[in-house]
Amino acid sequence: MSFTFALEQDRSQRPPLPRRLAIRTAVGLARLLVLLPAHRLQRVLAVLSRGARPAGADETGAVRDAVLATSLAMNGLRSCLPRSVAVTLLCRARGSWPTWCVGVRTAPPFTAHAWVEAEGRLIGEKGRHDSWARLLTVAAPSPHTNSGTSGKSGESANSGKSGH
User: Fold this and answer.
1) Tell me: the pLDDT tens digits for 84-121?
2) Terminus-to-terminus CA distance in the chain, angstroms?
3) Which residue, of 43, 78, 118, 144, has the fewest CB within 10 Å?
């Protein structure tokens, strides 16, 4: 015989309602944005990155953890693209911008993936920084440039949508 029961939640650990709503809004917006062709998504994110300061690794990790805790759908294996966009949007709402990346693993098994980086480190991802080939990136703009977009060959580094 089995029993179904709910685990008691420690309400003191839950983010306040306004924060949960902001996270859910970012997740919903991310789900819409990932429907765009990859080059347009990259351009939209580049525009949104303008005026933002580079995000710190601790800040970005905390935002990623909040996204994962608030939206169970963002924990899936094939949720890397909307998850990375949601984390980026939430960081932007705080005035910062992590480096948003889409690329492929450089060693077998070759897979497409999307992730965020801050302070030169992968945030919440397994593996080494050099085990991924970046095809699209949108970094916080430096004070000398007007665009946060970079890639192996500029904006033409993309050949279509990427994801898991």
Assistant:
1) 999 999 999 999 999 999 999 998 888 999 999 999 99
2) 39
3) 144
